[in-house]
């Protein structure tokens, strides 16, 4: 079937329909009746999804795509590049190879990468694609990675694992022990074959829960793409028993906003203040990390409230998140809301506030959008307050 998909006329048909509605296309007559139309339609859907996420694949001819779900679940090239910067050495084995995006980038840093994939068809697809991408230092092995690791019987500089979060018996799961492979159960065996392990997990995994299941964790990387947390990376080093460093990174078109701190090293005591001239909202990677007090102390800014996770200062700083200039601050009450916001247009954010964004919009007839931003929150005196702001661009000089 793979060779049929690569026929010139079929590839031309796929490329010609990338921007078309596949559901409508499915109602039309199959121009290639000798091939299941669903297979062709899947290629169109999967390739269109890869345009922004996997530009190297999208721009390469004769790439074969697996199911659209596989494309949705795979790492993006941007997060794969970040992972490749964490590793070094001669040899890496990926126990859960999948579509091979991470391995493509690992291969730029490591002399030999071994891609293990239990699904025979997917393994063949990936091997074909690596040939199209002109990658020559990746070996593809089909089968159970535990058995492959035993059979190869050698020391690796890194073992990389992206456990499947779908279990045939339990459906979608959230504990590492319920994923495939069962990393906590196999950890001692893995450390017989390497001194360093990198594990990718979904952002839904609770950090404290992950730490309770794993050992020898040296660092946890929280990776966000355009302010949406995409993955957690767990860096394990054999026999390591020290403090865990949390490293956050928000990858944007322009830059990577990074912040890190050591977990539970000592108590951190941030300052608190009523709203000052500027307001700072941390990016999603920092929010996931839980390092709310550490951010305040590191940047020498004040928290509005213990649970609000918004920060304020009279000075503008380069901050890993959004920065605003506060133009108006008032207590949340009927009189002020009617005067300041009712019937007008604002972006709305709530932090440590009893009402939802939807309820606030409906209650005060506030339209979405515009150039003004409003934060509904609680201040250090436990008063419900509203802050009206203008957003400050990354260059920290232009107010929008």
Automatic annotation (TrEMBL):
- Entry coiled-coil feature ranges: none
- Bilayer-crossing regions: none
**SUPFAM superfamilies named in the record:** S-adenosyl-L-methionine-dependent methyltransferases (SSF53335)
- The residue ranges of the THUMP-like domain are 321-391
One Pfam annotation reads: Thump_like
- PG-1098 ferredoxin-like domain ranges (all copies): 278-320
Q: Output the superkingdom of the source species.
A: Bacteria
Q: What is this protein called?
A: Uncharacterized protein
- Lineage start: Bacteria, Pseudomonadati, Bacteroidota, Flavobacteriia, Flavobacteriales
């Amino acid at each position: 079937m793979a060779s049929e998909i690569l026929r010139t006329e079929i590839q031309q048909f796929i490329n010609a329909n990338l921007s078309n509605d596949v559901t409508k296309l499915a109602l039309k007559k199959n121009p290639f009746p000798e091939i299941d139309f669903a297979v062709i339609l899947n290629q169109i859907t999967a390739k269109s999804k890869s345009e922004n996420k996997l530009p190297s694949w999208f721009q390469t001819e004769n790439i074969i795509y697996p199911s659209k779900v596989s494309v949705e679940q795979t790492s993006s090239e941007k997060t794969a590049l970040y992972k490749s910067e964490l590793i070094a050495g001669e040899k890496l084995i990926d126990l859960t190879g999948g579509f091979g995006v991470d391995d493509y980038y690992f291969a730029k840093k490591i002399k030999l990468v071994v891609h293990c994939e239990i699904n025979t068809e997917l393994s063949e697809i990936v091997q074909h694609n690596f040939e199209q991408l002109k990658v020559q230092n990746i070996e593809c092995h089909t089968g159970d990675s535990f058995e492959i690791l035993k059979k190869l019987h050698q020391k690796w500089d890194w073992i990389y694992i992206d456990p499947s979060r779908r279990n045939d018996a339990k459906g979608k799961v959230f504990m590492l022990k319920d994923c495939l492979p069962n990393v906590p159960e196999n950890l001692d065996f893995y450390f017989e074959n390497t001194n360093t392990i990198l594990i990718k997990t979904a952002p839904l995994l609770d950090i404290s829960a992950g730490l309770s299941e794993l050992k020898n964790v040296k660092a946890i990387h929280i990776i966000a793409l355009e302010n949406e947390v995409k993955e957690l990376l767990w860096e394990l080093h054999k026999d390591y028993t020290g403090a865990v460093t949390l490293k956050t990174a928000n990858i944007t078109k322009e830059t990577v906003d990074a912040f890190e701190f050591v977990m539970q090293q000592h108590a951190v005591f941030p300052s608190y203040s009523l709203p000052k001239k500027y307001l700072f909202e941390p990016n999603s990677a920092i929010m996931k990390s839980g390092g709310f007090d550490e951010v305040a102390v590191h940047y020498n800014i004040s928290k509005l409230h213990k649970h609000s996770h918004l920060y304020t200062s009279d000075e503008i700083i380069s901050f890993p998140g959004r920065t605003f200039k506060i133009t108006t601050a008032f207590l949340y009450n009927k009189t002020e809301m009617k005067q300041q916001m009712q019937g007008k247009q604002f972006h709305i954010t709530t932090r440590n506030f009893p009402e939802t964004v939807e309820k606030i919009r409906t209650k005060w007839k506030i339209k979405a959008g515009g150039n003004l931003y409003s934060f509904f929150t609680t201040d250090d005196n436990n008063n419900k307050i509203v802050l009206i702001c203008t957003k400050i661009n990354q260059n920290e000089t232009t107010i929008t």
